[in-house]
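User: Fold both of these, please.

Assistant: Here is the first one.
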Amino acid sequence: MYVGAIFFPLLGACLAGFLGRWLGDKGSQWVTVACMALAAACGFGAFLQVALGSAPGVVPIVTFLDVGGFEVEWALRYDTLSVVMVAMVTFISTLIHIYSVGYMSHDATTPRFFAYLSLFTFMMLMLVTADNLVQLFFGWEGVGLASYLLIGYWYEKDSANAAAMKAFIVNRVGDVFFMLGLVLTFWTFQSVEFETIFASVAQAQQVRFLGLPALEVIGVLLFLGACGKSAQLGLHTWLPDAMEGPTPVSALIHAATMVTAGVFLMARMSPVMEYAPTALAIVAIVGASTALFAATIGCVQNDIKRIIAYSTCSQLGYMFFAAGVGVYQAAIFHLFTHAFFKALLFLGAGSVIHAMSDEQDIRRMGGIWRKIPVTYAMIWIGSLALAGMPFFAGYYSKDMVLEVAYAAHSGPGMYAFVLGLLAAFLTAFYSWRLIILTFHGEARADHHTMEHVHESPLVMLVPLFALAAGAVVTGFLFYPLMVGEQQAAFWGASIHTAAHNHVLEHAHHVPAWVPLAPVVVGLAGIALAYVMYMFAPGLPAQLAARFPAVYRFLLNKWYFDELYDAIFVRPARWLARAFWKTGDARIIDGVPNGAADLAVQAARGAVRIQTGRVANYAFAMIIGLVLFVTLLLYGAR
């Protein structure tokens, strides 16, 4: 069961990838779906046994590395933290595979798509069940590779290729820090095995690196690595461009895989992070700043998938600042619930795009809710959960994140609480801006497109129903286990909780206005969206005209891409061109090519002498003899 949950997706990827030509499109689709369903069944069974049955364990597979005295085992670590991730990833990935059967039905290379999708799932599962940092890094790089393949899946589009390269390169920047953190961890603990590291972390408090506490440096480096995968402020620029991939890819990246890896890393390394208070403060501040930053951009975007992408970036900020105040349970709880309603929103957006003949600009939609009522209802459920409205999943998890930030009674905690409230207001605003512009008002699409608007097939709607159920019930079902009175027994030793238990306890006894505030600001955001886009539809254009600098600043994503282009991209291109034109063409190629050219010219001169006439040869011999005698006589004097 434990092995099957991880390796069934790999089996599906191999069958579709290597035998897709013989299996055909339908065969490849249903083989991968069947393998994912088996993995989900195994994942659910593992969750029951490990998390609810309190039976953690490690399943050894094979020796991964054995070099000199350095040996790394490839083993599957099954504790509550990993099994929560395994169950969530396999279940949501199965639904996305089923949805993709309908969404990608007209694609020319279906087996390749499903092979990549299953490979992505396998790599994420390898990451979350890793028993050591090297194995985790294998899965970490694996999801990077799979995301590159899927974002650039439609490789005939230049924009898709550019987005895939951007995601790959930006993530490599973060991965450099992760590798440095891995090496420093080995230098500090003489091991990369989690059990060894966690058992000796208290003794490592005295270890210093370059005059700084080694644990602080490790914490900062690992967080910088997490910033790349989880698109935190500074290394976030790849995330909106990743929308170039097919919509099911966006759902998988944003809901269950890739971007959640950084949050998982913080929770997995929580015993180390607990001894790095400065690193935790940085995590909280960067996470809170990301939550607000991404929310401001989402308010003015016009691509339906990019709006939802920036909401992911913002919600990841919430998860990080929960980890930053030491309540990793709240971070994983929000990660868990967010996976359901974010997958629902992306797949719902895919249903809209499918209905609108691949149109993604919400300015060219409107007036379609009666034609696709099921999709409309699904988007409403996802948005209510995202905005944290009562009784939906986000109400329990996002409010808990804000409550623990307030209960931390620290500078970073209060900073996170205030920015989190502002982000909650903006989240509700841009979510209902999306709903109103997409579904309500006058139809702004051309007549031909509106004629063909239709509801998605059942194979695409069934996964939406399952995700909608998750977006409604996962909050109140898992609240007692993950952050409520049963959390200590539920998490066990999988997450370090001892030092910050008081924060979680205080979070359950904060003033009454604290849990009420997110709902109030959320309702205010919804009301503002209705005023601006339903009752006074000309108001947004007037505001944009009155404050053009602010509008352009937000529309251009705070000019991060332009800034990076000026600082990194253009100088790198100039340097590369200089190395190419001068270093490569003139020096490296020029010197040997110049010598070769001299040899060619000398050979051509020698060829001209070879006339084949005896008189010419005799004359040359006489001239040579005269020169020889002359030199001999001159030397004798």
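And the second sequence with its predicted structure:
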Amino acid sequence: MLQIQTFDARAGGNVIYKALAHPLAAEAIDRLYGKLAGPVGVYDPDGIAEALFALYPTRIDALFTHESEAIGTIRAGLPSRPLTELADSGVRTLLVAAFDTAKIVARIAHLLPADTVVLTLDETKLPDSHLSNPGRYLDKLNFATNFAFFRDADGLSTRLVSANYWAAHGAGAVRLWLRLFDSDGHVLATWQQRLPEGPGGFAIDSREVRQRFGLGAFTGQLFIHAIGAAGHDVVKYALDTYAWGDGPSLSCTHDANAWPSDRFAGLPAPAPGETVVLWLQNSHAAPIPAGAVALDRMGRETPVTLDRPVGPFATVALNVADMLPDVHWPAQIEVRAGRHVVRPRYEIAHGPRTRIAHVNVERDNLRPDPAIATLPPQMGRGYLLPFPILPRGRFRSIVQPTPMATTQQTLPLRVDVFDREGRQVAERFLGCLNRDHDVALDFDAIGLEEGHAELVYDFREGGEADGWPHALFRYEDRQSGHAAESSFGGHIFNTAMTWKDEPQSYSGPPPGLSTRLFLRLGDAKRRSFTVLIYPASGPWRPRSATMLQLHDGAGKMIAEAPLSIACSGSAMVWPHLAFPADRIAAAGPLGYVLVRDTTCRLFGYAGLMDDAGGFSLDHMFGF
């Protein structure tokens, strides 16, 4: 596993990791290494060295620290030596593993051996033109970055859609710095794209990119860096995969979650007639060594390793059946990625149709919390994981709980089922499931025509909980055979009382719950829709006061439509039905709907649907 610190739930991420892993920083570090002449010493004042040499291995001969309590501890494979030994160390080059080092270098100048050359990570900084805050290099807004799976090959294209939500937080001119890598990790194109001055929509379409740069077919990844960001340091988007011409495939996924993880979960094993491919995309400029990535039947602890390396920024298609031939749906697969990749995508082919979805970060920093089983009664049902039950006449809806933390050995769960008006119509105890369970509940057995369900903790047979319940939701079109799937985790929703950091989505101090969800518009062939759910852990307002706000491509709101959803109810919303046709036309291809509510927190799933039986669905994002 790479010895790097990436995401910290308390701090919101590690900006040093992003500063080191940026593709432009990788090129600069390669140039910096070319100047190293041995013996090489490293002074590590900020604890960066271990991450630096994990991402960019090179030979070093000595490592120095000013922390007396750290003397002798191992960093980057070397014992830490006291800084006072630098003068007699004989190092020819000293690399100061820090940024903004002018004062640091001046303070240790008297300790340097004669003729020692001093190099620093300042040589690897991005240009000021690429920084949102040039005055403070390690400001997290300087590294508002992400990756996207990006393809234009085999009859399929991809389209990334989002909005300039940074403008709503006071950003001035915002632009994207973009770099496209092919499957071998080679750079196909680098360009910049200016975003609308206001909170307007934008799109990056693989067909247009291919035509613009005269590219052949490609499957790889797109690196995205938002320059001029304010408020948010994460690049959020929806990614549609669509077929050329009248092809039958259609799918969408949420953004990639910019932080590499050791493990990911929520990868389904293939069902009969299906081929499941995991798209493994190296997020770094260093190769992934052979044996560093593995797949395992969830809960079995018998991982099968990938026996070949993966090049820098390269993309590899792993057929799950080649590595785990005896594992079948409804079994689940754990991806052991060793912090080499951000959230991977997987693709399922069944006949002429394919669908693509994402796995989720499996957390290694959680422990079971006995207090969850005895939450105060004011917290109601506590943690909920809401998800749609699509109209049963056309769709089959299936839920499968997924372990999403390395310490989860039991999952004590039930499903509460609600119709659209918030009336509970059924309850199904799933049991105290083991980590390696293969339970998948088909809602045909419940009989509800349309509505939603909520996965909740239920300790009637014991078990443990950590506040991180997750599940995979699968939807199948009975007529066309097309399918879509999504996955997400639970929260405490819509209560006046709080427990730790729940409920989330506050606007100001508790209980200021609110909703701000992005819904892209479709086109003449593929119409967008959303299923909005009003989950409530305890009693809250009887109905929502939701407003659908239609924006044009420049971000101007051009129409509003009210919507009232019953507490514990849901609604399926189609923009082309909610707004007049002339307003939809005025919004244009980059227009969008903002789902806004200042009275409650809604949860949403969105996608596209065509007339040939293709549809997509994944959870929505907000800003």
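The chain has three domains: 15-124, 140-357, 370-619.
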